[in-house]
Amino acid sequence: MTKQPDADELPIHDFPTATSVAEFTRNIADVRANIARAAARVGRPPADIQLLPVSKTVPEERVRLAIAAGCTQLGENKVQEAKRKSETLADLGVEWSMIGHLQTNKARDVAAFASEFQALDSLRAAAALDRRLQAAGRSLDVYVQVNTSAEPQKYGLPPEELEAFLRELPQYTSLRVRGLMTLAIFTSDTPRVRTCFTLLRTLRDRMRELDPGLVGDGGLSMGMSGDYEVAIEEGATCVRVGQAVFGARQVPDSHYWPEAFPQETAGAPPGPRP
Length: 274
Ligand SMILES: *Cc1c(COP(=O)(O)O)cnc(C)c1O
Description:
Elements: H1 21-41, E1 50-53, H2 60-68, E2 73-76, H3 79-88, E3 95-98, H4 107-113, E4 116-120, H5 123-136, E5 140-145, H6 162-168, E6 175-181, H7 190-210, E7 219-221, H8 228-233, E8 238-241, H9 243-246
Helix pairs in contact: 4-5
């Protein structure tokens, strides 16, 4: 259900809310079909692209339905919410990927329940996680978040700091570097969105040339409900998709990235992206 996009505009999706296992199965199949089409356009095997469903703000009853429809790993932005869900859904054996900014005082929680952390952008967070993980005898998959939009946004390393950062990471032996992660600029202007994804891939390639060990597996986590097809065309190996799987979210994006929406307050009603 995609309206015809204007030239150079991202398609406008309406994201149907899934309230049964069958509806989740259909939404997931639709997303996987889109992934396969985007991969085919650039000659990539669709199996190279992981779909990470993002369940933030979704109540536990509906998360259970998504798990019944086959989701085995779920992405969450906020530690408190993820921790609560990991406890109440512990019987289902699903893995939790933290995709939002980490305050170091929450490192102990993340080290206890998460299998992956995609938003690593400070050595303080790396050290805090490593200390807790060592104590627990666990390891954690991590992606290093890069700010590719050159917006004065808080989260993600500036590209010019990436190399030095990656060279420090091996000392934190419980962290397993899976690759790089980014959020594209919030706009419906596809060429500008694409620029962010191209930059992340270019950085990955440059780091690999410097030293093949620097970026670990060399994965690229990029692309969300509104732009994952573009991200796949630019090399994404993991797409983080919430609304296209679960349904439109009532909480505005400014709640998660206030710095990207300076004109809105965090409590503003959902509206079109600027
Ligand atoms: C919420 C979120 C997503 C998914 O966004 P949707 O628009 O629901 O697909 C992806 N990445 C991060 C970091 C998020 O917080």
